[in-house]
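Module 6 notes. Inverse folding takes a fixed backbone as the condition and produces residue identities as the prediction. Think of it as a translation problem where the source language is geometry and the target language is the twenty amino acids. Below is one complete input and output pair. Work through it position by position during the lab.
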């Protein structure tokens, strides 16, 4: 797995954590009671509210497991970003965190870092290349390794 794939998986986990409650609320809103219609539905909507109730119950049951897995992945990704920061400079760790873990779009990443969008994208590419060259596992355990002396 490349560093880009690793951080994209972390971004997906962050989005899943953020959107889980919203998806549950949408599904719960479909559970409302409606008058029974004797005419057929031509637009393909689901008329059985119990299916939506079952879906909400399933989402509630799986939520702790899903959240634990997402939190684990995000915690590991923060450690890897910390390793990038320790070895190559905090700006590289910041661009990874802002883009992948905090779900910021490129213009916000660039604005917070006071650089152009193109420069922020280049910094991210460099950080990912550096993570690939050092290895995710080594960067995750950066507290147990020697620190590099020079930042790029």
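Target side of the pair, the amino acids:
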């Amino acid at each position: 797995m490349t560093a880009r794939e690793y951080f994209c998986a972390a971004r997906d986990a962050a989005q899943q954590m953020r959107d889980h409650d919203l998806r549950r609320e949408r599904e719960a809103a479909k559970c409302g009671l409606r008058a029974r219609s004797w005419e057929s539905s031509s637009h393909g909507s689901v008329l059985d509210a119990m299916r939506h109730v079952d879906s909400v119950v399933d989402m509630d049951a799986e939520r702790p497991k899903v959240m634990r897995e997402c939190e684990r992945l995000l915690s590991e990704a923060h450690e890897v970003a910390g390793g990038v920061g320790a070895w190559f400079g905090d700006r590289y760790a910041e661009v990874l965190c802002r883009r992948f873990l905090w779900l910021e779009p490129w213009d916000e990443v660039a604005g917070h870092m006071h650089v152009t969008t193109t420069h922020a994208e280049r910094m991210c590419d460099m950080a990912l290349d550096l993570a690939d060259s050092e290895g995710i596992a080594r960067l995750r355990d950066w507290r147990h390794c020697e620190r590099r002396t020079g930042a790029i």
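Reference fact for the lab report: The mean pLDDT is 83.
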